[in-house]
């Protein structure tokens, strides 16, 4: 390398080396081209196409056999004259092309073979890469003579191998001699100097790739480590590939809306980030990964780098064409020139080359530049980076993480010159949670520093996360927060696993955020310990101001922060000597705008900006914290009520607050109860009656909601006693997240209700309830309890799992004194259906397929008190023949029948009518779900088909993806009377007003709201409700929504008929 750096122009002592270089590269390549053209067996077929004639030859193999430049030449079908010695030599090693032996055959080392001659020419070319070759005039003569001998021998052997005419061979042999003599005797022209310089530049480029590649790998191994909660783990770091779980990554929200992308079209896999194009198919040069803090931006790029640098096995697609991958963490990074930028990317390599040499080499390479926290760059450095990208090769790409609040402004900086793709990381999906927690506990934890726990700990931790997910959706998608939960649990003597509430998790999360804010505060790391305490105190005072703003937002019924509030927070930062933009953007979604300078530089807060809390739950939490701080004052009096502290008037809340505000205050009170239980238990006890009265004013009345407040209060005795004995009563309806450890504890230790309804919603998989089985075990032994169990996800959606294990808990043993199962909804196997408890069951809802029908008919005659049977049919024309469908063994005078049939089209409507007839002639409720029928088809084929077959139905539901006018709906309502449905007034002037259709469509209300009885006897449900406008009959109205329209089941309280 030293000889290259010292060189100025072409010296006299270089002439002989230069001539020999030209002889090998020019004449040697000519020999390669001639031999290849003689031996090529595929005529006019392109070389790449010929390669693919090899059995099982694939694109993956093609990528392994040839580098980026070589693949490009072969793909573009470059002529032989454009191929270099290295590439042609590689092609010789494929027998399919010229018939020579494979590259691993020993014949390539045999001096008598054509293959060896070809290999020897390649070796002569390789010798030229060494800088220590020096030639005297005598050396040059000897070298050229040896080269001529080798080249002539190669041509002669090739002519024999490929049967070439002697005249052609003689002519080419003479040209070899002529060219070599001309090179030996020629002066060194300017053009040749330029060619030599190109060789030197190529050599420097190759060395930069080699040196830079090594440095990049070493840098990634040092910096691409993941750290969580350093105050817990003492700086422990792990390889990203050990703990990483694939997050949900979506295209920018604006793209999704503008293009109306489906879920699959909007999502991007981690392995596809670098090859994902814009919606119009264009390949982006700049890819920005945006997310809220802690959602996995840095983890994602570190994972990508770790995979690519250490594996390169195509796990991450789109890196195949990169010559060099560079990484830079932008926090605390500043550069004011291109040379400083290059030195920041490759600090060690920069010391081994002249700045111009390194810059020229990098600009000629196809780079992948990976930047973490791009938004942390100062404006001048960011602008310089944008300009730098204008000068790089077209194949160079930038992958960077940005904060969500700055994503749009940074995207606008790149957009004018570069195709830019903005992607949002939304955290870890629910199905990846178990994998992530498992890896976290396996790789972060140092065994000797942790508390020993049992083998079921992971399931327990997963159960905690699952039970809290409905309340902490975004938080529990954050890998940072999930890791913190796992580590906090593992490193504490009083594990949070058995007692954590939503409020406790929020407080843990906010501690993490405050710690991050402190660590990243400019200059904080340079301060002493006493100064650390001072800064922490200032941040606490800032948070008090922020909590006041949160309360004002809720009172206004808005989640956005008004300008006056931003000005207040800004002044608070000034008074506390805290950086205002940094503090506000750390705790709020702070959308930056261009400052009219054309460069997209972040501007101070202005009336045009949108500032909001990152999540509604965060807003509620800080509003609760505002009340808590005021209750902590020593002079606070019980007469100073919570409503007064919130600034609410004493009059009836229902008349002054909107529904949204009332719901927000319910959440605020939930977190406040949790905070009081943890921080001010005496205040919670003193104010119990006040809190309950306030919650009743806010509309809290259901057992599920009261149980959540009991849980947040950690089952504080005073509050628990008042709620259970005076508010909840003896009839409990417990659903979804309220089926918790706290609920189980109440059943075991405090009270058993007379009548208990347990329901799991459509989006709640029963297996995800960690305490449901234990709850049922308690119910089973509760003498006299009337129980209803409704597993709606199993009833409506599930196609694989069954509810057998849950029902078996209640039926196993059948000992005296067990609870009375009055109502059940779910999906059971045939063997479990036969063993349904028959004594008290009054309502039954099952999703059934043909295999279950025999078992169902076996048990139906024994259900003497059954007054309601609901069946969700898992039938299709492809799998079920109507004549094989058994008639249901029910007494229609006693048992009302409700049946749902799915995805009926014009082709299968006759089949649906036959199925309905086979099951029963009398229905209380008959529904089509997600059908493809028009209103005309419904009347002509569905309603008429039922009539012809003698089927009657007191009510119909018709859900369709088709449109219907008001006139068609009115006609449909009238036609339905022929099968027993009640009609509407048959008057000439009748028009479908909202009130009239609401009465006719109360089924729709039940479906949309997931509640309410299916009791109407005169219903044809067309969803959604039409407008109140009664003007034009031609206005299209959908018969139903195109999304999920599942409804909970009616009257599952177990009451008598």
Automatic annotation (TrEMBL):
InterPro entries: P-loop_NTPase (IPR027417). Residues 1010-1057 are annotated as: Disordered. SUPFAM superfamilies: P-loop containing nucleoside triphosphate hydrolases. It comes from the Eukaryota. This is NACHT domain-containing protein. It comes from Petrolisthes manimaculis.
